[in-house]
Specification:
By secondary structure, this protein is an alpha/beta fold. Helices cover about 40% and strands about 15% of the residues.
Length: about 270
């Protein structure tokens, strides 16, 4: 095994991380096929709100080719509209550049002792990325927003694990694109006498909902999830990190998380 695949290895350099992202298919030639990417772009352009992630996109992205152009620029998918099937890509340079921008926001959050809400709709892939980020921010003096007790959404429970807001149904953590769990949290906070978070770190509809409400938001998104990239292009979302959000082993994300926290000057979990 290459040392960069070992979660106990040292924090990677930028070049080392790019190599790791490509070899583990977090970026580069990713597993998400071209036809799936294009199908999702088409659904978003046709107004299917499932793919809007809680954002209000109006008629601004009604042309599938405009969506593809943004995804090529910000995610690194092939910009050729004639490429309809087979392999597609995420540019690892764009992934690392986005992580560097996230690091700036994390450093500011720590310096300002911001209130931060961390959430994931993709617990099978990204829970530990978010949990380590939450732990590092807490250690640096940030307040992690606590999810009010008793919240429900989409026939499930909105709860918190390792400092990360998650969605639970049937005693299992669920993968969800829905903005409803984040909406439930943001609606409940003022009822608890709490201010909204200063910063949200999330993915899927959790990130889209927070960004739509005007909260500074960082999101992670796959090549078949265009909404957050469009929101970044419009300035609604602060940063969108392109990556395959569920590779075969969640431990492959650990060098990426280590790089992010080191770039932010935050303590990594031991």
């Amino acid at each position: 095994m290459n040392g960069m695949d070992d979660p106990e290895s040292a924090t990677p350099t930028r070049a080392g991380l790019i190599d790791h992202l490509v070899r583990t298919r977090i970026a580069g030639d990713v597993a998400t096929p071209r036809e799936n990417n294009l199908a999702h772009y088409r659904e978003l352009a046709n107004g299917n709100r499932y793919y809007w992630f809680g954002l209000e996109l109006g008629e601004r992205w009604a042309d599938e080719q405009d969506v593809l152009a943004v995804m090529s620029e910000r995610c690194g998918v092939d910009d050729d509209p004639a490429h309809r099937s087979g392999q597609d890509t995420i540019d690892p340079e764009l992934t690392v550049a986005a992580l560097d921008r996230v690091a700036v926001m994390l450093r500011k959050a720590a310096d300002d002792r911001q209130r931060v809400l961390v959430a994931t709709g993709h617990p099978g892939g990204l829970l530990d990325v978010h949990a380590q980020t939450a732990a590092a921010l807490r250690a640096a003096g940030c307040e992690l927003v606590r999810v009010p007790l008793g919240l429900t959404a989409d026939e499930g429970v909105v709860t918190q694990m390792a400092g990360v807001a998650v969605y639970e149904r049937g005693a299992s953590l669920w993968h969800t694109h829905s903005p409803a769990p984040m909406a439930a949290i943001l609606d409940a906070l003022p009822q608890e006498g709490e201010e909204p978070p200063d910063l949200v770190i999330a993915d899927h509809g959790w990130a889209g909902c927070a960004a739509q409400r005007g909260i500074a938001t960082v999101g992670y998104a796959d090549s078949n999830d265009p909404a957050l990239f469009l929101a970044e292009a419009e300035g609604t979302l602060a940063v969108c990190v392109p990556l395959d959000d569920h590779v075969i082993n969640a431990r492959f994300y650990e060098p990426m998380t280590a790089y992010l926290l080191a770039a932010a000057g935050l303590p990594a979990r031991g």
